[in-house]
Amino acid sequence: MNETPVHRTTLATLMLDGAPSFASVEVRRIAIAPGIHPGAHWHNGPVFGVIETGSVFFQVGGGEESILRAGDTFYEPGNRTISRFDATDEGVTFLAWFPLPAGVEAELTMGDAPVGR
C-alpha cells in the first residue's frame, strides 16, 4: 500500500487584522431554511465557517457576491457588514467558529456595521 492514509488540504489561509488574542472559540451548527434572506448584519468579531449542506449567496460589504456550496469555506471579518448570507432554494446548514477574547460573547447585529468600526 503506497497510498498515504491521511490527507490534509488547506482550504483557506486568512489574515486577521491587528493580530487579535483569543481566549476561547465557540463552534455552532446553524441552519437557514430554503429561500430565507436574513438581510445585512455584522458580528463583533471574526467568524470562520464551512458549508455542510445546501448553498448560500454570500457577500461582504460591496465586494463580489458568490455562491457557497457544501465543502466551501467562508470568512466574515469582525465589525464589517455582511451584505448577503442568503439561503438558496435548497436551504443551508453550516458550521461557524467564533474566536472570542476573554469576557466577550459572540454578537450578531442586524443592519450595516457602523462607519469607522
Which tags fit this structure?
117 residues; mainly beta; Jelly Rolls; 5-stranded antiparallel β-sheet; two-stranded antiparallel ribbon
- Average residue-wise pLDDT: 92
Computed structural class: mainly beta
Order of helices and strands: EEEEEEE
Portion of residues in helices? under 10%
Low-confidence stretches: none
β content, as a range?
over 45%
Q: What is the CATH level 1 assignment of the domain at 27-106? A: Mainly Beta
Largest sheet: 5 strands, antiparallel
The radius of gyration over CA amounts to 16 Å
- Given the C-alpha coordinates, what overall shape results? globular
How would you name the CATH homologous superfamily of the domain at 27-106?
A: Jelly Rolls
CATH-derived architecture of the domain at 27-106: Sandwich
Tally of strands: 7
Count of helical regions: 0
CATH fold node name of the domain at 27-106: Jelly Rolls
N→C terminal distance: 54 Å
